[in-house]
Amino acid sequence: MSMVMQSAPSAETAPSVRQRAPLFRLHRASVWIWCLTLAGISLIAVSIPAVSAGVSFWFYLFQWIALASALNLMAGMTGYVPFGFAAFFGIGAYAAAVLSQFHHAPTWAALVGATAAGALLAVLFAPTLRLRGVFFSVVSLSLAIVLRSVIVLLPEDVAGGSSGITITGRHDPIRLYYLMVAVSMGAVAIATAISVTPHGLRLKAIGDDLDAAQIIGVNAKGLRLAMWMLSGTIAAVCGALEGLYSSAIDPAAAFNILISTKAIIYAALGGLGTVMGPVVGAVLMTITDELIWTRFPIANLFILGLIVSATVLFFPRGIVGSLLQRHPRFRRWFF
Question: Is the pLDDT of residue 242 over 90?
């Protein structure tokens, strides 16, 4: 019996290796195709200012791609949904505005300060990662509300008070647009790099079953913190760019819960836990929102709500997620 037990695995191992090899090559090809797609999107984005009279729509399109992809790093890969995601966006906007308006910092210095503020806030909020499920979501939302209140209570010469900050210094909108494109493509590239490495499998294990992942030796605490900091930092940079682009921020807009809600909806509609999903969801919903708003401004939210409800009903795992569930063979090409 001992000889049979020893020979059985070797008989199964060889075929499994032969079966995996072509799948690995196909997966590798899909990564290259996806990277070339991102490169193509970047080239198109770079040419938009030369062919379009305004870049405002495109600026916010790439902002939502970045925010949806950043939220997906946390919610989609680890299963922790941060309803207080707007806190990072708001702190980045305020950090850049304070540095630019009160300390006359150049654009690059304002962005560096916003990045540092987002990373610091992620560290301060890190103890909430001990919570799970709805408790984590509710506490993160509460902390975002508290942070907004703190900003309002600060003296006007420190953070503008309840009226916010109007940035009088000029920041080139075209340069800010290019920076937003770079941030969005960087966020997608980070998600791609994570998904094709063993870290992607470890994060999926955390999202599926945290206790089981820890039992098999996954460093859940370290990986969650890394995703939390990456997600928060990207959102803070987006907030900084949007604040400098609009030249006016206030607590209600910077810490608006709709920022968290939209990022979650866009990522979920495309497919949480996938790399392509947040991009697909952000692009489709931003374009849909713009079309509906221009034609039906009064019924905008009502129609959007119907579209979101119908999409969730027919694609419960998101567009990309449902496609992969119904047609598993596409997993070789979509991830």
Answer: yes
b/e sequence 231-253, b meaning 16+ C-beta within 10 Å: bbbbbbbbbbbbbbbbbebbbeb
Find where tokens 């992969």 sit. Answer: 324
Are 174 and 16 in contact by the 8 Å Cβ rule? The answer is no
Q: How far is CA 88 from CA 35, 129, 192, 228, 262, in A?
A: 28, 16, 22, 11, 14
Return the H-helix or E-strand segment holding 241. helix 220-246
Phi-psi region of 318 (alpha: psi -120 to 50; beta: other; left: phi over 0): left
Residue 194 has pLDDT above 90, yes or no: no
| Number of neighbours of residue 267 by Cβ within 10 angstroms | 31
Query: Given a cut of 70, is residue 22 above it in pLDDT?
Result: no
Q: Give the span between the Cα atoms of 58 and 66, in whole angstroms.
A: 12
User: Largest Cα–Cα distance in the chain?
Assistant: 82
**Phi, psi for residue 248 in degrees, rounded to 5:** -150, 125
By residue count, the chain amounts to: 335
pLDDT of residue 9: 42
Contact status, residue 16 vs residue 24, Cβ threshold 8 Å:
no
Token duo for residue 122: 């992620």
Kindly report the pTM of this predicted structure.
Answer: 0.86
Task: Give the C-alpha separation, 327 to 319, whole Å.
Answer: 12
Separation between Cα atoms, residue 104 and residue 106, nearest integer Å: 7
